[in-house]
Write a structure and sequence with these properties.
By secondary structure, the protein is α/β, with parallel strands linked by helices. 47% of the residues lie in helices and 15% in strands. Helix 2 packs across helix 3 (44-54), helix 4 (61-72) packs parallel to helix 5 (90-102) and helix 6 packs across helix 7 (166-178). The structure holds adenosine-5'-diphosphate and adenosine monophosphate (AMP).
Length: 217
Amino acid sequence: MNIILLGPPGAGKGTQAERLEKTHHMIQLSTGDMLRAAVAAGSEIGLKAKAVMEAGELVSDDIMIGIIADRIMQPDCAAGFILDGFPRTTDQAAALDDIMADKQLKLDAVVEMTVDDEALTERITGRFACAKCGAGYHDRFKQPKTPDTCDACGSSEFTRRDDDNAETVKARLAAYHGSTAQIIPYYREKGILRSVDGMAAIDDVTREIEQVLETLQ
Ligand code: ADP
Ligand code: AMP
C-alpha cells in the first residue's frame, strides 16, 4: 500500500507515519527529513536548500522531484510507503503520478489531515525529537513517559528544529495555503482523497487513519 499523508506543517504527519511504520511495515518518506540530512551532510542539495528552509519557503520542484524519484526506486519502498511532506505543489503531484506510472506503482490513498492554523502554531513551537532515534515529542501533548528520557531508545538528548519558531511558522503556513492546499482538489477528482480530523487526540487520529486503510485492503 502506498499513501500520502497530506496536511499543513504540524498536522501530525510524522507522528502518524511513525506509528504506521510499526503497525503496517510501510516506509516513511519524509522529504523534510531528507533535506535536513542533506543540510547536515553539507551536500550540494543541502547547501541549496538551507536558506530556503530557514525562511520557511519551498525548495524548488526540480530538486524535490529528483529526490523522490531516486528514493522510490530503493528496494525498501517495495513493501509500501507513506509520503510525508511530498507533494507540496501541483507540479510535484503531476511528477509523482509520472514516476509511479513509470514504475507501475499505485497510489492507494491521499489522507488529508485537517488542523486549524492556531493549533498548528502551538504544535510546531512545542515540538522536539530524540536526537538519537528521531522519535517525536511535544512539550504539552506528547511528553516522554519518563522525563528527559526517550520512550523508544532511552537517550536523554533531544533536539528542536531551527525552523520551528513562531516567525518561520507564518511563512510555512503561507506556503501551505498558497501552494500545497491546491493539490487537494487534484486528488479529490481522482477519487482517492480521504479526510481525517487532525484536531483530535493523537490516538483518535491513528484510529481514523486505520479505518481509512482498512477500506483499501
Ligand atoms: P508534521 O509531521 O505534520 O509536521 P508532527 O507529527 O511532527 O507534524 O506533529 C507536530 C507536533 O504536534 C509534535 O510535537 C507532535 O507530538 C504533536 N502532535 C501530533 N499530532 C497531534 C495531535 N493529534 N494532537 C496534539 N499534538 C499532536
Ligand atoms: P517538513 O519537515 O515537511 O516540515 O519540511 C521542512 C522544510 O523542508 C519545508 O518548510 C520546506 O522548506 C522543505 N521541504 C520539505 N519537503 C518539501 C517539498 N516537497 N517541496 C518543497 N520544499 C520542501
